[in-house]
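Thread title: Can someone regenerate the structure for this chain?

I was given the following input by a collaborator and told the matching structure tokens would be attached. They weren't. Posting the sequence so someone can regenerate them.
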Amino acid sequence: MNVLITGGAGHVATILRPYLEAEHNCTYFDVKPVKGAEAQTIIGDITDADAVSRAIKGCGAVIQLVMAPLRTPNYDELAYDIHVKSMHLVLKAAVEHGVYRVIYASSMSVYKNCGGYFHETEDETPTEDDIYGFTKRLGEDVCRVYTLSQPELSVLAIRMVLPQSAERWAELKASGKTTNFMTAPGDLGRLYLAGLALTNHRGFDAVHACTDFDREHLNLAKAKRLLGWEPRGE
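Best answer:
Regenerated them for you:
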């Protein structure tokens, strides 16, 4: 399948690339070239509706990984533009071009003190008012509302927890410093691939994602039921 990955030069996209490229034809959209995939990179602004539309045309699915850069002077404004406005532009362009499969990289940070208590279900009302978690929540709301008027659209919001690169995960395992509140790279890759393979899904669903073997923080039953996914710690 032809898959467009926004934020292709970022941390999460870098983790996912080997898994996605092994099974799909990937094109990346970012403000800078993706190292090693320069020929597959479309340079553009995710808040430019025309650029987004051109990038999505001809794709079979979109993975929205773009994230506002932290520690910038105008972060609050960027967070609204990139986490909320751009989500609307991506969905609008996807529907216009008949692309009905979208995955949104959300975060468990939609919940205040997200690691401090057990999350029984994805249906809990998000509570974070910090700008990052709050705008990621608003991005989910855009997805949820958009699917109400577009019955053919399938949108998954994957609420990630501290996704780790392969190198960092290996270091943490070697030092015994991995915890149940982070996500191994292989687990993350399998989850996104499962989302792309979900052909019979319509509407909006949020899914918790974490390498939480002991179920200390998250109930991962929905990920197993909907996507056939469980963490392996790899």
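Helices lie at 11-23, 49-56, 75-96, 131-149, 166-175, 185-196, 221-227.
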